[in-house]
Specification:
35% helix; 505 residues; binds flavin-adenine dinucleotide; seven-stranded mixed beta sheet; six-stranded mixed beta sheet; alpha+beta; 21 strands; 16 helices; FAD/NAD(P)-binding domain
Length: 505
């Protein structure tokens, strides 16, 4: 085996493949490691993946991408969070915003003060203390201020993008920086004791490499078919396994947030991009057939369709190892946790950045591979627990699906967290996990996981002092949001991709 990697081969040209190609082309010094990407036009990509989380800003920064150019290229919009309808209880809604709620005081989390005031009937809803939520509900947007004394420093955001345009944009980026694209279907994978050595395309062409990325989507051609890495199925905790998707014309104001509306056997998303709105109904085929799922999707649309609904089947879970021998599974080939909190592109990004920080020599030391797998496995588990929370923390008993979710056994790591929150609203942020305290609090509170008592230190403070602090925080946020431009006006100045007349394209 060579001492240094000479040729990295990526199979698959969806978001995962082109994100990896773009990042490698950016960080590898020119002329050191060749990067080739093979994709099959006849197979195509999954073509969904439109909502993101704030970490995508870091990925764009790694690539040195200008935000306005990125929004223009992907028909992107800004996202301040997700509005959940009918999850905890039919008829109820809450917003899971990016960023924090309020300001922590004297070393105690803000939400403890809020819980105390709420009990005393002297507080607004929790989301009314989040600048992102307050702005989102008014369709307003501004970039975060750098000055920590400014209320605007509390802004956090991500994007809604057109996934197909995103892959195309990254392809241009990577090809300009030396990545070689080959079109063709891989039909054979050659291996020796160290791992994969070469791939044969349908045309008979052979592509040799010393490191491989499996970005072949749900097919997992290298990881599953060639290397036989086991898939750990989590569908008993996340029972949705199907999606019906369709785009609609863009009508009405451009909302700066995703909507996730719970349905009889799953939920429906609404994701606004500049030129159209993405919609999808995610459901469990154990509890609903495809025809009914399609009907529910269509009933839930708020504008005329563009094209016809498309069905996608999936399985929730992850590979037991994402890095095996000289091959890393990235994207859907590594695992899928359903798109409820828009985490898939983030997990791809994490796979890429962990690979770069553990960049191996040609003999791929075991210790490097093990570290990568440990870190990625943990990330998948932490995201999984947060997603399960949305399903188990419900009082809904109006369908067999919700009865199942409400009463299912959950991982011990999650049941411990819920029990601690129920006891006195305590939440902790564990080792580098993606979802921080405000996210857990937003979902627990939003879905009626009610603490039995208030933190004893906060309980001993004068109630008036607490409610006064809360009122002034809320007023400052409303004032800041009122002063912002609308989302649409902000975008028009900063990343408009199209004329309004092009919206049907
Ligand atoms: C219903 C649904 C909704 C989603 N929503 C979101 C979301 O809102 N936010 C988010 O972050 N993520 C979301 N995701 C996940 C996101 O779509 C994927 O993580 C992302 O697009 C990466 O996909 P991929 O590149 O791994 O696979 P794909 O897009 O499927 O690409 C696979 C590639 O492999 C190639 N290929 C396959 N076999 C071969 C072969 N034999 N030879 C050559 N090439 C081959 C294909 O041609 C293609 O280029 C969603 C996923 C689904 C299913």
């Amino acid at each position: 085996m060579a001492d240094v990697l000479k040729h990295i081969v990526i199979v698959g040209g969806g978001s995962a493949g082109w994100m990896a190609a773009a990042a490698l082309s950016r960080v590898l010094p020119p002329g050191t490691v060749r990067v080739t990407l093979i994709e099959s036009d006849s197979i195509g990509t999954v073509g969904v993946g439109e909502a993101t989380i704030p970490d995508m800003i870091n990925f764009n920064a790694l690539l040195g991408i200008d935000e306005a150019e990125f929004l223009k290229a992907t028909n992107g919009t800004y996202k301040l969070g997700i509005e959940f309808h009918d999850w905890g209880r039919l008829g109820e809604s809450y917003l899971h915003p990016f960023g924090s709620h309020g300001v922590d005081m004297q070393g105690i989390d803000f939400h403890q003060y809020w819980l105390a005031a709420k009990r005393a009937g002297a507080a607004e809803d929790l989301q009314d203390y989040s600048l992102c939520a307050v702005s989102a509900k008014r369709n307003k947007f501004a970039l975060p201020a750098r000055d920590p004394r400014s209320v605007l420093s509390h802004m956090r955001y991500a994007y809604h993008i057109d996934a197909t345009r995103y892959a195309r944009y990254l392809r241009d980026y990577a090809e300009k920086r030396g990545v070689v694209r080959r079109e063709g279907k891989v039909v054979d994978v050659a291996q020796d004791d160290h791992g994969i050595t070469a791939l044969t395309l349908e045309s008979g062409q052979v592509v040799e490499g010393d490191f491989f990325f499996d970005c072949t989507g749900f097919r997992a051609l290298l990881t599953d078919k060639a290397l036989g890495v086991t898939f750990e199925d989590w569908s008993h905790w996340l029972p949705c396994d199907s999606a019906q998707t369709v785009a609609t014309r863009r009508e009405g104001p451009l909302l700066p947030y995703t909507k996730a509306t719970a349905k009889t056997a799953g939920w429906q998303w609404r994701i606004p991009t500049q030129h159209r709105t993405g919609n999808g109904h995610i459901y469990s085929s154990r509890f609903m057939d495809d025809d009914e799922a399609e009907r529910i999707l269509l009933d839930g649309l708020d504008a005329p369709m563009i094209g016809e609904p498309r069905k996608i089947s999936f399985r929730t879970g992850r590979r037991e190892a994402m890095w095996t021998k000289n091959c890393i599974a990235l994207g859907l080939s590594a695992g899928f946790l359903e798109p409820l909190e828009s985490t898939s592109l983030y997990l791809i990004q994490e796979g890429i950045s962990k690979f770069i920080s553990l960049f191996p020599t040609g003999d791929v030391p075991d210790v490097v591979r093990d570290e990568y797998n440990t870190q990625l496995r943990t990330e998948f588990e932490q995201v999984r627990d947060f997603l399960i929370l949305h399903y188990v923390a419900t009082t809904r008993d109006d369908s067999p699906f919700w009865n199942y979710c409400r009463t299912m056994d959950v991982p011990e790591s999650l049941s411990r967290r819920i029990a601690l929150f129920r006891e006195a609203g305590r939440i902790f942020h564990y080792s580098d996990e993606l979802f921080s305290k405000p996210s857990w609090i937003a979902v627990c509170v939003g879905q009626n996981v009610v603490p039995e008592r208030v933190d004893p230190i906060v309980a001993s403070l004068p109630a008036q002092q607490v409610s006064h602090s809360l009122a002034s925080m809320h007023a400052a946020m409303v004032k800041a949001a009122e002063g912002m431009p609308t989302h649409e006006a902000f975008l028009a100045r900063h990343g408009a991709a199209i004329d309004k007349t092009d919206m049907l394209a």
